[in-house]
Design goal:
The protein folds into 2 domains: 214 residues, Spore Coat Polysaccharide Biosynthesis Protein SpsA, Chain A; 61 residues. It contains 9 helices and 12 strands. The protein is globular, with a radius of gyration of 19 Å.
Length: 287
């Protein structure tokens, strides 16, 4: 039996975005060599974007999340889904017609495969937004980036990756890892955390450049929070990620030693988001 896939699009107030993105996704599902359906998982939208989707693409299933838990809304839906592979996308992504097969096919031969990540272009298709990512610890602080030194030479090579915000996931392994951690709500770093836990469990994460998607980037998130709050959230959640996942004494010595210098340097540059993120992380209580 061929693997089955479900493209699950997380939607919030997508009235302007869905007409730009959903047509390409539905067309890709129709042409897919693997049985593939499309689901809109709606996070309590206030606009009438869903009405447009119902009218123009009745084959798309619409599921209403009982509350807006951002990426964590995926967890309950995926737990009840029956497909082999779930392809998770935001509502600000359009796709190439053949993007599905390169994401799903690797799952046929690798029983430990957790994630296959696509090559991500900006919405115009002129610039690469993300490919494979690398991560590490520098001066007591975690980093994860798709634009590491030399990334350009590796964009067209299928290889391992450390993280991806969207792509094709093994539904079974996603459930085994308990999905996205609500510690990071309202968002940022929950995808990195999930991938970090997957690698720690011995699962494989793959980057596949033959699958191409086009991303506007934080379209819904930026409308709600604004650029400065997003940066503060990113710092807060990076602290939470490190404190949750890193246990070695060597890391903690380095982290505590360098942190005051990092904060002082950022404040001298007129940027208080790192300091604000630290304070918020210290005050954070798990939901």
């Amino acid at each position: 039996m061929p693997l089955t896939a479900n493209i699950i699009i997380l939607n919030y107030n997508g009235k302007e975005l869905l007409p730009q993105c959903l047509p390409s996704i539905v067309e890709a599902a129709r042409k897919s060599p693997f049985p593939c359906r499309v689901t809109l998982l709606d996070n309590q939208s206030k606009d009438d974007g869903l009405s447009w989707a119902k009218q123009n693409y009745p084959e798309v299933e619409i599921v209403h999340s009982p509350q807006n838990r951002f990426l964590c809304s995926y967890n309950d839906y995926i737990a009840a889904d029956k497909d082999d592979v779930v392809i998770l996308l935001n509502n600000d992504i359009k796709v190439d017609a053949g993007f599905i097969a390169p994401l799903v096919k690797p799952f046929e031969t690798d029983p430990l495969l957790f994630l296959v990540a696509p090559r991500v272009m900006d919405f115009s298709g002129k610039k690469v937004e993300a490919g494979k990512s690398r991560s590490g610890i520098r001066a007591g602080h975690f980093w994860c980036n798709a634009r590491y030194p030399g990334y350009e030479s590796e964009l067209m090579q299928a290889s391992e990756t450390d993280s991806s915000g969207f792509g094709a996931f093994s539904r079974e392994k996603f459930i085994a890892l308990n999905g996205y951690d609500d510690l990071y709500l309202p968002g940022i770093m929950e995808d990195v955390d999930l991938c970090y836990r997957a690698k720690g469990a011995g699962f494989h994460l793959r980057y596949e450049p033959q699958s191409v998607v086009y991303h506007i980037g934080q379209a819904s998130f930026k409308k709600v929070f604004g650029s400065k709050k997003i940066m503060t959230l990113a710092h807060r959640n990076t602290f939470l990620f490190m404190w949750k996942n890193f246990k070695s004494p060597g890391f903690w010595v380095s982290h505590v030693f360098f942190l005051p210098f990092r904060i002082l340097w950022s404040l001298l540059k007129g940027d208080d988001t790192l300091f604000a993120g630290l304070i918020q992380a210290l005050q954070k209580k798990r939901p």
